[in-house]
Description:
By secondary structure, this protein is mostly beta strands. It has one helix at residues 124-127, and strands at 2-6, 9-23, 26-39, 45-56, 60-67, 75-76, 81-90, 94-105, 111-122.
Amino acid sequence: MIQQITKGVKISVETSYNGTSYRNNQLYYIFSYTIVIENNSAETIKLTDRFWTIFDSLNGIEIVSGEGVVGQTPTLAPNINYTYKSGCFLTSNLGAMKGFYTMINLETYEQFKVYIPTFQLSTPALLN
């Protein structure tokens, strides 16, 4: 598990490989990741946006951004966790992701970024 703390907010990431799939005659490697967001700060915060940089060793870099995560903009009081699962399709069996969440402190209305550590996406055969 990969972890990083920004302004008292801990991000933990765990990945898994879920096999392959063909779409439009193209082979894709399917990866999923589970993210736990822990609010260890003293303030209530809300996740408003996400920004991802996805590296695919055969297809370069893709940027993904937008409102919330998996259709939600969770509010986290102090000492509350939020967990979600998502995934991505790569054209290679080796890649990585990193990014950040834009949060707002609901007491001061200050916006800030919480960084998501770089995590690897690789098939089990590459790990041997």
